[in-house]
Amino acid sequence: MNKRKLRDFIGTKLMFTVTIFASLLFFAIFLILLYKSIFILETQSIAELLFSSLWNPEKGEFGLYPIIIGTILVTGISLIIAIPISLLSAVYIAEYAPGKIRRVIRPFLDVLAGVPSVVYGLCAFLFLVPLVKDVIAPWFGIESTGLCILTASVTLAIMVFPIIISLCVESFSAIPIELKEASLSVGATKWETVKKVIFRASAPSIISAVLLGFGRAFGETIAVNMVVGGIPRIPSSLLHPGQTLASLIASAYGEMMSVPLYESALMLVALILFVVVLLFNVLAVVVLRRAKRRWSY
Amino acid sequence: MIKKSDIHIHIETKNLNVYYDNNYVLKNVNIEIPTKQLTAIIGPSGCGKTTLLKSFNRLLDLRDNIKTSGEILVDGENIFDSRVDVPDMRKKMGLLSQKPYPLPMSIYNNVAYGLRIHGKKNAKELDSAVKHYLQEAGLWNEVKDRLHDPASRLSVGQQQRLCLARAIAVEPEVVLCDEPTSALDPIAAQQIEKLLLKLKKEYTVVLVTHTLRQAKRLADHVVFLYFGKVVEQGPADEVFNNPKDPKTKAYIDGDIS
Amino acid sequence: MNRRILEEKIFKILMLASVFIVMGSLVIIIGLVVFNGGSSLTIEMFTQTSGGGYYLGRGGGILNAILGSLFLALPATALACLIGLGIALYLQREFTHPRISAFIRLSLDILWGIPSIVYGIFCLMIMVFIGIGTSLLAGIIALTLLEIPIITRYMDESIKMVSIELKEGAYSLGSTKFETAVKVVRRQALPGIIAGVLLGLGRGIGDAASILFTAGFSDRIPGSLFDSTAALPTMIYHLYASPYPLVRQRAYAAAFILVVIVLSISIVSRALSKRYTKFVIR
Ligand SMILES: Nc1ncnc2c1ncn2[C@@H]1O[C@H](COP(=O)(O)OP(=O)(O)OP(=O)(O)O)[C@@H](O)[C@H]1O
Ligand SMILES: [Mg+2]
Hints:
The complex is a heterotrimer of chains A (about 300), B (about 260) and C (about 280).
Chain A: H1 2-43, H2 46-51, E1 55-56, E2 61-62, H3 65-96, H4 99-114, H5 117-139, H6 149-174, H7 177-185, H8 190-201, H9 203-219, H10 222-227, H11 245-251, H12 262-295
Antiparallel strand pairs in A: 1-2
Helix pairs in contact in A: 1-12, 3-6, 3-9, 4-6, 5-6, 6-9, 7-8, 9-12, 11-12
Chain B: E1 9-20, E2 23-29, E3 32-34, E4 38-42, H1 49-55, E5 66-74, E6 77-78, H2 86-91, E7 93-96, H3 107-117, H4 123-136, H5 140-143, H6 156-169, E8 174-178, H7 186-199, E9 204-208, H8 212-218, E10 221-226, E11 229-235, H9 236-241, H10 246-252
Chain C: H1 2-40, H2 43-47, H3 63-90, H4 98-113, H5 116-130, H6 136-160, H7 164-171, H8 177-188, H9 190-206, H10 209-214, H11 232-239, H12 245-276
The complex binds adenosine-5'-triphosphate and magnesium ion.
């Protein structure tokens, strides 16, 4: 009898401990990154770090501006490519495709979602890079190595597809059939029903799918690192190389220990990544709560 | 009027109030449930019967939005007292819910689960105990060849009897039943009713029911609940044949439901 | 009227084009991996460790990376599974106030979204601070942290689905909270728990960024927890652009094996969760 109580007590305490551990992990990462970035923040102001274009770690110059621009470009373009394609595919899969095709496509999407990012990077390197270098860049009369913003964006877009598509298909399929019938029975075409009823009714899920896609694109390190070119300069066109925040950290592997303040600068970059993810998650919670109230069916 | 001294009171509530959020569900409930009798709690849908039943073994604790005040005495001891060992107290009260919820394990383990956690580990003893309680619940002959099948594969009626076997296997003193026959077909329902009549010889049985006829068939003692208030309680024949409150009469005559 | 039908047609074409693009990219990826990887696969790839480095393509296989990946991902997943199960069970209402669990869930979601490179650099810093530095152990810790939010949230979602009536059944038999959680709720949520663990495993075995700094790289099979080790993803990352075909082939072979592993995990996941739904009560 007492043994049971003891087991209950110990078990509960253990569970409590790991839960505390997980909650602390969150703060621990934040605080340690902050603590480590203080060294560089003491020598340079945050504005200087964020808006200076000079990135020369050897000379002690840590301007992140070109890298931030690179990140925004790569993430933004990848989402501009991924969102419409994913939404249209999701509509097709959920509403138009015959059952057989639907059943085939689903596992394919799971496969796409499960492929490790380093494999995406490798495939982009083997396929997209030569394509951009030999076909696309010459079209525009630009010389490019193929390692550029555009290649990275397309790679990321492909990585984001399965995330947005599977979440959207799930939510489109969950809409009660009566709702669709109501729209069709007043004479709307199928596409009009999609536009006016389905998109609206599943707006909260679409928003969260896009936010998840953003997270994936924004934080992707390895695949981007393999094809973006890795040059911390503001690219003069999309066919020129650039650098992103996450990829910068990976590139600096090995060098960072030898240059003073370099490590601290990288911690600041990690901190920025952390804070952006944090803000977007909080934003997602707020937006979703609102969207749910507004578009609930 | 019955004389209090004639019967033993097993469960007693004193000024029991229950709120879900701001929904006042049980209002100043004072009832007495006699030992080794079958007490039926009747009343229209939504009047708080399930809530009352589940307050007896503090299952309401599992819900987030609940607030309770008052006392519930089981064998004279207040179950809300901080010294009470809740799992032990719950062990004394078996539960048979509206829809059967067997545990996610085999038929055998459903019965053995309670025995094991309360210290019976010996395989031989377990086998014979499981057999005994399945027999008590009238299920043994139907399942003896597939004891290790998942319980989810039984029919609903069989699942309900399995839940009964599971409940009595831990040797409770009270069996709480929440409309145990409402999900069953008439024959399965009859089997359960027969079992309940057998059970009340050894256990205090509290039965929440929707059907008046069932209450008439089975009950020794009746509590009539209406919008969270106890309107009438007493021996079954008195309440049914000679209701004192006009609301009880209306309910029994089928005028309110 | 005509305009509406035209719009319908145009969008239908766009939709088909989109599906074509998505499926096409998958076909290209699989094609590249199978073609390049398949032609690089030899028996030696599985039986020999890497010889020479990036520039000196002295042949050899990827045994060290295969084993390294297993040594990293399996313990990490086991740890994350234990910790995640503890957290997920503890987030139930009987243990934690719903408001606090909502907060913990949010912080887990944020942890899920944090780029894996951040875990890598965080762990490296901790390990350097402790005085261990780049090692198998550091890699395991980084992967564990990476997998915890994934596994926990997955388990949590399926534990949340366990009906209150089922728990009532267990409690009314006199079970303690811990017994109910570990014996009943865990079983009922098992299919979801398994899916979560395998998802975490797939994520862990494929992630390069978190182990890049922490596990390091080496041509040998790690002899102890404190040795650096190669893994399949880092092998790909370090060797894919080598000027020597022999070295590049190691990257292709690693990619092929990695994809096969990830695919098998997802197939196993489907099969297992079907098998374990047997006991689940609906
Ligand atoms: N979890 C809950 N949250 C909020 N209100 C609840 C909850 N459960 C029950 N209620 C409300 O409490 C009241 C009493 O519910 P209860 O289930 O006890 O009624 P009942 O008499 O058992 O009804 P029935 O005969 O239909 O089973 C009802 O008005 C119901 O709406
Ligand atoms: Mg009820």
